[in-house]
Amino acid sequence: MVIPPMAKITILGAGAMGSALTIPLADNGHDIKLWFTEFDKPILNALAQGREHPRLKTRLPKEISLYGPSSLKEAVEDSEVIVIAVSSKGVYPITQRLRDVGGYEGKIVMTVTKGIEEFNGEFMTMTQVISKNLGGVDIVFVSGPSLAAELSRRMPTHVVYSSVREEVALEAKKIFETQYYRISVTSDVIGTELCAALKNPYAIAYGIVEGYSAKNSVEGYKNLRASMITKSVSEMAEIVSRLGGKKETAFGLSGFGDLYVTCLGGRNGLFGRLLGSGLSVEEAFKEMKARNLGVVEGYANALTLHNFLLRKGIGPRDAPIIHTVYKILYEGYDATKVINVL
Amino acid sequence: MVIPPMAKITILGAGAMGSALTIPLADNGHDIKLWFTEFDKPILNALAQGREHPRLKTRLPKEISLYGPSSLKEAVEDSEVIVIAVSSKGVYPITQRLRDVGGYEGKIVMTVTKGIEEFNGEFMTMTQVISKNLGGVDIVFVSGPSLAAELSRRMPTHVVYSSVREEVALEAKKIFETQYYRISVTSDVIGTELCAALKNPYAIAYGIVEGYSAKNSVEGYKNLRASMITKSVSEMAEIVSRLGGKKETAFGLSGFGDLYVTCLGGRNGLFGRLLGSGLSVEEAFKEMKARNLGVVEGYANALTLHNFLLRKGIGPRDAPIIHTVYKILYEGYDATKVINVL
Description:
By secondary structure, chain A is of the alpha/beta class. The first copy, chain A, contains 17 helices and 10 strands. In chain A, helix 5 packs parallel to helix 6, helix 9 packs parallel to helix 13 and helix 15 packs across helix 16 (320-330).
């Protein structure tokens, strides 16, 4: 592979995925700045002392320059590419701060943050937030099956970069791609963003079926598990298509691939399994806390998506799994109701 | 659910799936005849003595009439529906025998047997064999994620019945469907048959990645596993589409759903895992035998499909995974080559 000429990249947010991206970037010889939010201070301390990243359990490349919360302007001003890697609720404020300090104009702004959030009564995807607050930048959305810890260990990972102008996604691909970090590109931004936003509640649904299976049978309910994940992907494809994306996006790495890896591990699946084994929502949360796994993203996602889909005219008939997950989490429905959907 | 009026059904072949179908049929109150091939004698003995089915480890309904190999004519002559449930190599001879004894004319002939086989130099799917040897019958192909042992225990199972004339599939659905055995219908017979024929080598490929992962990492390579299964389904969709079927069939229960359940358990996946962990093909077979798991369907399938696809002009560039599996199994390629495909 031809290593592209050195580029200057700033990553905003030192969480798992933002930090993991420094590995392929360093392997490609780029100049990397990592900016820390106010919430990232424990991570900053660890890295500044040469210790491993507390969430990745890996050391990051030595060449990275570290920037504290108050140095946003300095972190971005010389860079060609800015990667937003904060939480989904953090994307709105960080883009406002960027607008205030400047230095983003004419650059490629990428985001590894996924989700749909309600800001001032309006539902927005992450690239819509960026576009609203930072007019005129080229935006690249990153999705696909990529657990950050694996990427940081250079385990084979294949993701999708999407941009309304595909050539921008290709430009980003040239900078980031390595032997172990493969990148496909697409212009179906709304499709990839919807898939990424939808996957967590589907992972909870799958977890419920797994938990129910494990409780009722030693080996079994594999037929049911296969139906569940297949129908989740079909429902996702239907939603994507209704909202202007391509069905095939839901069947590819950004949809099914990412859902699959989410089902293989992670908190949403575990939370679902606890519900499927018979725990109430409250009991499941208690159990998650006892295991030191506080936040279950899909829980908040299910509420937002329920409201978002209703506003778009996509009700329980068109998206039965997602709306049933909502009812299980917020309206006291029995978890096994999700099985009846099938 | 309205139980349809009693129908007379004959199942040819008392293997796992043919026998499991007697459960929903009996629950719906139908008249069931089960005919045994020469290979099924140990099963016949067990059932005739009131013992459980040796492969399903379940007792079959008492009301079933049992027919030995020499009573094919008597087994089929009064029935309205004939279900072929022999091995894929057995479909040609059984349909020839049916033609000889008669009694199939004007009936619905269903098959739960999957695969593509070469007969007299011609590659044929199962419904093509039936159609060739039993002209003029209505054919229904059964596929989807349905492990027979689960169906026989009334665990929730959702399958697909396909027929060139969809109304025939609907007629069969009325007879077979129960609360736990749900049936969707489609007219994309070539699509569902190709998916069913292709899934075993893909399950081997997935197994290789799993075995490789487990050998090299305690937790890991989930990103790779997700990519592998996603790309298998995409490749399957491409093949289906090239050969006249619908891509969406590959993304549904007959394609992805069935592949998923095959990856969750079964011999093909295990065989793949042994290869992925570093064993040679010979060593993997030895290990399978030691575990009393002789036949790995995907091994023979890979050879047939390799030749079939080449004849159809679909080479390694269009179907890299399936051809690589062939090369691993028959040409001494290192198993990890399948990872390079990704």
